């Protein structure tokens, strides 16, 4: 019985580790969808009585945000859905989701760092497998390859 348990653990460990190397070879080319946007402190933007650091859940916005990297030009197509959050005098919030705004941003990739630049922003992302992550205002933003 001990041999079967040891063999099972060895197989699980081998399968878990073998995918890590493949993940590092994920091509930047393609569509990356915003899958997480967090704040450093929990806020109750949707006024449901439960504060959260998850901006996407709290606002219901940003779900249509993507970055598209093409292989023929060093310019990314950044489609970021806008969100307007206003705190009311009574401490509650109003949230309005806007349309996605498109911006074309030159990018550079070096090792595991992908940097987007424009007249408005300079954003370095760390690329690990199929995820691009950056820190923003003390929170984080994650795009996942589709």
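-> sequence recovered:
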């Amino acid at each position: 019985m001990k041999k079967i348990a040891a063999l099972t653990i060895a197989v699980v460990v081998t399968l878990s580790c073998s995918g890590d190397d493949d993940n590092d070879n994920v091509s930047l080319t393609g569509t990356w969808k915003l899958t997480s946007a967090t704040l450093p402190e929990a806020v109750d933007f949707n006024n449901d009585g439960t504060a959260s650091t998850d901006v996407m859940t709290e606002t219901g916005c940003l779900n249509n945000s993507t970055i598209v990297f093409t292989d023929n030009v060093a310019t990314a197509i950044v489609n970021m859905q806008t969100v307007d959050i206003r705190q009311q005098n009574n401490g509650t919030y109003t949230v309005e989701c806007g349309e996605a705004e498109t911006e074309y941003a030159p990018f550079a990739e070096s090792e595991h760092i992908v940097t987007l630049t424009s007249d408005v922003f300079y954003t370095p992302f760390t690329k690990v497998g199929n995820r691009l992550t950056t820190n923003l205002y003390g929170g984080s933003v994650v795009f996942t390859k589709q």
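Strands lie at 30-43, 52-54, 66-69, 75-87, 93-110, 113-117, 122-128, 131-136, 139-145.
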